[in-house]
TrEMBL record:
The lineage of its organism: Bacteria, Pseudomonadati, Pseudomonadota, Gammaproteobacteria, Oceanospirillales. One of its GO terms (cellular component) is plasma membrane. Residues 151-582 form the TRAP C4-dicarboxylate transport system permease DctM subunit domain. This is TRAP transporter, 4TM/12TM fusion protein. Part of the tripartite ATP-independent periplasmic (TRAP) transport system.
Length: 666
């Protein structure tokens, strides 16, 4: 009977005890800065003090000024820019990342200082002797081999400190493959490479450590992270949050929706989902908790919203630029192609949070606690102009580096239009330091990924990887997609967005292209499945950062984030079977319309499945029917989409007519 479903919903509401509305009517407008100060992000980095902090800040400022100068005024050759970039990053890394967690409260040791200096010298060595190496045709001397060996060891230690052991072990496995080729069985066997040849590949070429990953890190990634730091210090983050409060705060589950909108807006220009959680979660998570959301759910919402930022143009975690280079496509084509899948992702998350709020009887924040849209825009709306300037310059064909360079200058100029938002010299100084600090882990990860990319280039194992997937799939697309998804997820655990994409683009995407998937669609598929590692246990970095802020159980937060982020796992399959969602610029209006209807229908079905609720609790057979609709939507035929539309439409009509308060026949 219909009433039984209502009873089930009420019982779930009571058992979850998810929301107890406090009396907030008498409180004033929400103070974002006050909420931020109440929470603290747990970090494994040192909190430097005294002259150590001064040394770090001075080097960080020098690093940011170097990258800013070379981006907008005097570009350097790759084998000068990249070694100098890593010299800065390695020096800063060993000052701020301790060898063990137990050393987080201690100042840098002699070993840390020695590693910092050694890393900087061995990296800068290549830039200093660049002309000499070119004149001798790139052939290494004995000194080059010794310095290169030390440098590789320092990179592995830096990767261990910043990323943990997974990336180090993965790098060593690939290096071992180069050395042990003659002793491997079957298809894995190869002639092997000498120690000198391996060091030359990894240290002295643009196909190893100083390859495309570090190339992007030393240019696009650094500049866009610096751009984000200037936005943060100018108060743009507060503007985004207040705008999200004004737009969604009063609706059911308002604080969670605020988290989704604010994280999405910041995620557009952030380079890391974990960093996004750290920057916006410090005020969205406490607010969600203050309204009665459980800590693990609040942290999961923020993690999923931040994870989506890496799928959202214009920056896509800086991977849009790498993707354009890999595919030899215009940047604008890549960015525009990613818009619809990202919109579907956020639509699914937003709708699921809305259904959960409805299921639990939540209300929004009181109107008197919310800022007004007009007041927010009039007071700080000018701060968003640099973002529009950045997007406009990119669309009109300016290089990404020059666009970021000019947009950073625009932040300082435009923020000065109002006294209360004007950036002081101290704000500019802090932004330069923050930009360098936020780049360290990404830069080190990109350097360590160079071991993998260099091995693929030297040995040809990428072709073997592709042939293996094709062989197992045996010409069938679905098994190939499942294998590619699993490989992308496994290879991405614990890695930042840019590194994830480079690995999957090198090893996994070519197999899908061989199966007939369009190159941009194939790369986006692998990118999505690599990106979801940030919300997928056991290495769900974004979820764990959120759990630290919320003081919530780590694994429970991770699995809740998986459920909320269901769209990240399913949307890639949908746009592979309906490529018009990505290649809509080349599709006919009819193809695009069918794909959009299917995509939106899938989003609604995902939200209903995730909460087992539409207007009331869903019976099991209806959940199964909605899951079947998603499978039908993925099937590339008009009749399948129509069948899904009929089945889902029937369920929606039944649930709407039987919503609480309506009398329906049993």
């Amino acid at each position: 009977m219909a009433g039984s479903h209502d009873d089930e919903s009420r019982r779930q509401h009571d058992s979850d005890a998810q929301w107890e509305r406090p009396d907030l009517e008498g409180e004033g407008v929400i103070d974002v800065d006050a909420l931020s100060s109440q929470s603290e992000v747990k970090s494994d980095t040192r909190s430097l003090a005294g002259w150590w902090a001064t040394l770090f800040a001075m080097v960080a400022v020098a690093s940011s000024l170097f990258h800013f100068y070379t981006a907008g005024y005097r570009p350097l050759p790759a084998m000068e820019q990249r070694p100098i970039h890593l010299a800065f990053m390695l020096f800063l890394c060993f000052l701020i990342y301790p060898a063990t967690r137990a050393g987080a409260d201690r100042r840098p040791s002699l070993i840390d200082v020695a590693l910092a200096i050694t890393g900087a010298i061995t990296s800068y060595y290549l830039a200093f002797y660049y002309q000499d190496i070119v004149m001798r045709g790139g052939f290494p001397t004995q000194t080059d081999i010794i310095v290169g060996t030390i440098f590789c060891l320092v990179i592995l230690e830096a990767a261990r400190r910043t990323m943990g052991m997974f990336l180090v072990v993965l790098s060593l496995v690939f290096l071992g493959y180069l050395a042990l080729g003659p002793y491997l069985p079957g298809m894995l066997a190869h002639g092997g490479f000498s120690f000198e040849r391996i060091i030359r590949q990894m240290y002295m070429s643009t196909e190893g450590i100083y390859g495309i990953a570090v190339g992007v890190s030393s240019t696009y990634v650094y500049l866009f992270i610096l751009f984000g730091a200037f936005l943060q210090k100018s108060g743009t983050t507060t503007f985004f949050t207040n705008l999200a409060f004004a737009a969604a705060g009063q609706s059911p589950g308002g604080p969670a929706k605020v988290g989704i909108l604010a994280s999405g807006m910041m995620g557009m220009i952030q380079g890391s989902s974990a960093a996004n959680v750290a920057s916006t979660g410090v005020f969205t998570i406490p607010l969600m908790k203050s309204l009665g959301f459980k800590g693990y759910f609040a942290a999961a919402v923020e993690a999923v919203a931040s994870c989506g930022g890496q799928f959202l143009p214009p920056v896509m975690g800086a991977s849009a630029f790498i993707m354009a280079e890999y595919l030899q496509m215009p940047y604008s084509y890549v960015a525009l192609g990613a818009i619809i899948p990202a919109a579907l992702y956020y639509g699914a998350v937003y709708l699921q949070v809305h259904l959960r709020a409805r299921k639990l009887g939540m209300e929004g924040l009181p109107r008197n606690r919310l800022p007004k849209v007009k007041a927010v825009i009039l007071s700080r709306g000018h701060l968003v102009l640099p973002i529009f300037l950045l997007i406009g310059m990119l669309v009109f064909g300016f290089t990404a580096l020059f666009s970021a360079f000019f947009s950073i200058i625009a932040i300082v100029v435009i923020s000065a239009l109002r006294r209360e938002t004007r950036m002081s010299l101290r704000d500019i100084y802090d932004a330069l330091v923050l930009g360098a600090r936020n780049t360290i882990s990404t830069a080190i990860a990109c350097a360590a990924v160079g071991f993998i990319v260099g091995t693929v280039a030297l040995s040809g194992i990428g072709l073997l990887f592709t042939q293996s997937i094709l062989g197992v799939a045996d010409g069938n697309l679905l098994p190939a997609l499942l294998l590619a998804a699993a490989a992308s997820l496994f290879l991405s655990f614990g890695l930042p967005t840019t590194s994830v994409y480079i690995i999957t683009a090198t090893l996994v995407a070519p197999s899908l292209v061989e199966m007939g998937v369009a190159p941009l669609v194939a790369h986006l598929f692998c990118y999505y499945w690599g990106g979801v590692s940030s919300i997928t246990p056991p290495v769900a970095l974004a979820a764990y950062v959120g759990a630290g802020i919320a003081n919530a159980p780590v694994m429970k937060t991770g699995f809740t984030a998986m459920r909320l982020g269901m769209a990240a796992y399913l949307v890639p399959f949908i746009f592979v079977y309906w490529p018009a969602l990505v290649q809509w610029q080349d599709a006919s209006p009819w193809q695009l319309a069918i794909a959009l209807v299917g995509g939106v229908l899938a989003v609604v079905c995902m939200a209903g499945i995730g909460e087992r609720f539409l207007t009331r609790g869903l019976a099991h057979y209806k959940v199964i029917a909605l899951a079947g609709c998603i499978l039908l939507i993925m099937y590339p035929a008009l009749w399948a989409n129509l069948a899904a539309l009929v089945i889902a439409g029937a369920i929606f009509v039944i649930e709407y007519r039987a919503r609480p308060g309506k009398l329906v026949p049993s």
